[in-house]
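hey so u asked for the seq, here:
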Amino acid sequence: MAYNLLKGKKGIIFGALDENSIAWKVALRCHEEGAQIVLTNAPVAMRMGEIKKLAEHCGNAPVIGADVTSMEDIQNLFTQAMDHFGGQVDFILHSVGMSVNMRKGNPYTDLNYDFTHKTFDISAMSLHRVLQTAYKMDAIAEYGSVIALTYIAAQRVFPTYSEMADAKALLESIARSFGYHYAKKNKVRVNTVSQSPTKTTAGSGVKGFDGFLTYAEKMSPLGNATAQDCANYCVTLFSDLTRMVTMQNLFHDGGFSLTGVSDDIIEQMEK
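ran it, structure tokens below
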């Protein structure tokens, strides 16, 4: 059901790869709520994924390739997006993350540091690049909203999440720090959403992911939040209904983050 929460708003969605992506679901919901969007991803991801199919579903939204480790690409993205929209953007979704160490099966106690630097660069520093570029170009309208997707491994130990946990902690810190400066400059909001484990292409690559998923489902009183649930939540954070929410790490996890133990887990352990 649509409520026209984003009618007249314009935004950029980073990271949609295929129908399993949270960014894909967010793009569709933003379009349903009346927003105009620009889609972007790394050129290699665009070749692997189905982003053009998504663009068609979103009113033939422009697709602009951008490597988030390249300042030139990000500047070009904002320039083209503002040319397309005829002015500033109102919201941005940062749904970007990648770990070569995890892909290669390197444990946290034996990281390849070149790979780790790449993880931080793509998964966390990219948010700083996006915000710094937007800040200098005055690309985000007053009371605009930026959301970066994160995970509770930034606060708690999940052994096989490896250095992505460190990257997410840095991501959340950047959101807080830049959130302060952007709020002072132009009342722009910057938040992170800490989502339940979700069956995305990237998430499913984490060792033991199915165990993560089952455990979280049993721990969360409301159960795991789906990608569609996350898209709905992001729409509210992009809307004018949350204009005073900024610099927050917002847990969207069915109550997992504040549950010590659940009846379901106790019953499972007593079997």
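The chain has a mean pLDDT of 95. Residues 10-270 form a domain with the Rossmann fold fold (CATH 3.40.50.720).
lmk if thats what u needed
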